[in-house]
Amino acid sequence: MPARNAGKTLAATYKDIPPGTVHQVILVDDASADDTLDVAHELEITAFRHERNFGYGANQKTCYAEALKTQHGIVVMLHPDYQYDPTLLPTLIDPILHHDADVVFGSRVLGANPVEQGMPWWKYLANRALTGLENAVFGLHLSEYHTGYRAYSREALEGVNFRMNSDGFVFDQEIVAQFVNAGFRIAEVPVPTRYFPEASSASFWQSSVYGLAILGVLARYWLHKHGLKRDVRLESLSRRYREVAKRTGDDEHPR
């Protein structure tokens, strides 16, 4: 759980996680100004705190680094703002459990109309435009790339150098580019979302900066893929992927 001022929604999020679904909950508090950390301690959640606000991407880096110190095979990112439905966690991890995917996105676009659920119309249009462009560049057919509800196999997280990515929001798309470049399989499941005042949501300005940053990620990926300009984050990961594949005898997926 990458947390920032989630004191009002953390308990509800945590209590809706189906019993027996997860072995451990890890929360990283990115220097919240509220009682997020106190609530986490009351719920007996394993919690870590950044001494200052490093950013959403930096928060995820700490989350994944701590998760990989355990022996568990699947890592799920669930925002503690109660926007994404925790009861759907078993559905999210199912494709990984059945070895059908290495990464799973909880898509707000599959199923119910996200605008009817409360997503601002301008955010929906931007989502559609960026998703179409990302599909074209990555050669995929996903319904969306900008969800905050994701599941990763241990092999996928260990197979990419997420620590080199941005500390900001664009981290989400940089790690996708790394997964695509390394050949990991990405699946989707529909997840409804809630929009209410306590749920975190990027402003129009933040969303605009995020959109421009995504274009930069796509440009770097395209140049790297076509051998025009190497990106050390992608190049190093490709090499590691080949080493893992060679050790496991799997030419397609590191298992």
Protein described:
By secondary structure, the protein is an alpha/beta fold. The chain has a domain at 73-248: Spore Coat Polysaccharide Biosynthesis Protein SpsA, Chain A, CATH 3.90.550.10. Helix content is 42%, strand content 11%. It contains 9 helices and 7 strands. The chain has helices at residues 10-15, 36-42, 56-67, 89-97, 121-138, 154-158, 171-182, 204-225, 232-248; strands at 2-3, 26-29, 46-49, 74-77, 103-107, 150-153, 186-190. The chain has a 4-stranded mixed β-sheet with strand order 4-6-5-7, with helices on both faces. It has a 3-stranded parallel β-sheet with strand order 1-2-3, with helices on both faces. α2 (36-42) links the parallel β2 (26-29) and β3. α5 runs parallel beside α8, α7 (171-182) packs parallel to α8 and α7 (171-182) crosses α9. The longest helix is centred in the C-terminal third of the chain and has 22 residues, at 204-225. It is globular.
